[in-house]
Design brief:
Blueprint: E1 7-14, H1 18-24, H2 29-37, E2 41-46, E3 51-57, E4 62-68, E5 72-76, E6 83-91, E7 94-99, E8 104-111, E9 114-121, E10 124-132
Antiparallel strand pairs: 1-2, 1-10, 2-3, 3-4, 5-6, 6-7, 7-8, 8-9, 9-10
Helix pairs in contact: 1-2
Pfam family, one: Lipocalin
InterPro entries: Calycin, ILBP, Lipocln_cytosolic_FA-bd_dom
Family: Belongs to the calycin superfamily. Fatty-acid binding protein (FABP) family.
């Protein structure tokens, strides 16, 4: 892994256009309000063989992504139940996960002491900023 993403991360802040991103993705008003109100925690780990695991937990649900960078995999989008083909790739020090055929991407990068998640749908994007969680804050 090119960058140390491994660890527990807790949402610190979100840009104001998170609701607009979700709306462009077709998320209903009720689910958008719920999504905007939660503070997810993210656990990123790496298994033998290079499989990355990203578990995102909120009070409403959990999502697990399990993949090898460069290989196509199936997983859910947080606001949908069905599985979609996805592919993760490194873009220098950024981990980019694209939902194939949906014009949606999730880009993670470490900037200073934060994990920055940039979520993009077409021309709409938003950023969520996570801080590494200490044992006391988990």
């Amino acid at each position: 892994m090119a960058v140390d993403f491994i660890g527990n991360w807790k949402l610190d802040s979100t840009e104001d256009n998170f609701d607009a991103f979700l709306k462009d993705c077709g998320v209903s008003w009720a689910w958008r309000k719920a999504a905007c109100s939660v503070k997810p925690t993210v656990l990123i780990s790496e298994e033998e063989g290079g499989t990355l695991v990203i578990i995102t937990k909120t009070t409403y649900r959990s999502q697990e992504l399990r993949f090898v960078v460069g290989e196509q995999f199936l997983s859910t989008i947080p606001w949908e139940a069905g599985e979609h083909p996805m592919k993760a790739e490194w873009d220098e020090a950024k981990l980019v996960i694209r939902v194939l055929g949906r014009d949606i991407s999730f880009t993670r990068e470490v900037v200073g002491d934060q994990l920055v998640l940039t979520q993009t749908k077409g021309n709409t994007s938003t950023r969520r900023y996570f801080k590494k969680a200490t044992l006391e804050s988990q």
